[in-house]
Structures are given as C-alpha cells and as structure tokens.
Amino acid sequence: MVKIEIDYQGQLLTEATHGPSGTKFITDAPLDNGGRASSFSPTDLVGAAVGSCMATIMGIFAQRHSIPLEGMKIEVVKTMIQQPIRRIGEFKVDVYLPIASRPPATGRPRESCIVLPGAPESTSGCQNSDNLSLGSPGQS
C-alpha cells in the first residue's frame, strides 16, 4: 500500500506528496481549462504514468534477460476531447528502442520487432522504423 496525499493550493494548483519517499510535485490545470499550465496537469500525469509503467515493465524484463535497454525513449501524446464531457480521448504511445536492444533481423519483420500480446497484426513501426507505435488498429 502506498499513500499519496494531495493538498489543494487554490488557483487550480495541487501539491502531491508520495508517502514512502516524501517526494512532492505540483499539478496545474492547462490553459484551455482555466489554469496557467505551469506544471503537469492531472491528465498529463495519467499519460506519464502509462509511459513510465511501460518503461518500467520493459526494464524489468530487460534486466531479467540481460538486454541493454538504456537509451530507450517513450513518447506519449495525450488528446483531450470535449464531448460529451471534457476527458482524455486517447493516448498515442511511441517506443524508441536503442539499436542494441533489438534482436537481430531474420528477414521476417514480425520476428525482429517487439509485439505485445494482443497487439493488432497491423501494429506500425515493426518493418521500417526504429520505433514501435502502439495505437488503435489502422492508426499510426
């Protein structure tokens, strides 16, 4: 169990404190929602959590299998929608792997790229790119 305390500071600012470490950070609403965008918005943190979780899970796997993963980058693009209510519409996640992390090419692209269980057959980024882009089927 991890306790996280959130203190509302006023003017759409919050301060979150991580119980075990005492680390603190501030959130602010985005400009288009009345804030100053001086820090991550709460919904930005959802995207950051998705990307950080992916990197951590991949890092655990890489450590267990002696795969060098240093230099991996994950980019998360969050899109908000307004209707029927303002909310997160989607995340687009791109994973950029260091060249050394990729298995040697075998001539068959599906065997030389990382594909997550349940990922659509049309997952982009596996044939001619150094990144794996995970999104809705048919989108890149």
Could you walk me through the main structural features you see in this protein, from its secondary elements to its overall organization?
With 140 residues, the protein is α+β, with helices and mostly antiparallel strands. The chain is 16% helix and 29% strand. It has 1 helix and 6 strands, in the order E-E-E-H-E-E-E. It has a 3-stranded antiparallel sheet with strand order 1-2-3, with no helix packed on it. The longest helix has 23 residues, at 42-64. The termini are far apart.
Could you list some keywords that capture this structure?
140 residues; alpha+beta; 3-stranded antiparallel beta sheet; 6 strands; disordered C terminus
How does the SSE layout of this entry go?
Layout: E1 4-10, E2 13-18, E3 24-28, H1 42-64, E4 73-81, E5 87-96, E6 131-134
- Mean pLDDT, as a whole number? 81
Task: Report the strand count.
Answer: 6
The amount of helix comes to 10-25%
Quickly give the structural class.
alpha+beta
Strand content: 25-35%
Distance between the termini: 37 Å
The gross shape turns out to be globular
Uncertain parts: 107-113, 120-140
Main sheet overview = 3 strands, antiparallel
Please state how the strands of the largest beta sheet are arranged side by side.
Answer: 1-2-3
Radius of gyration over all CA atoms, rounded: 18 Å
Write the H/E string, N to C. EEEHEEE
Q: Given the structure, what is the number of helices?
A: 1
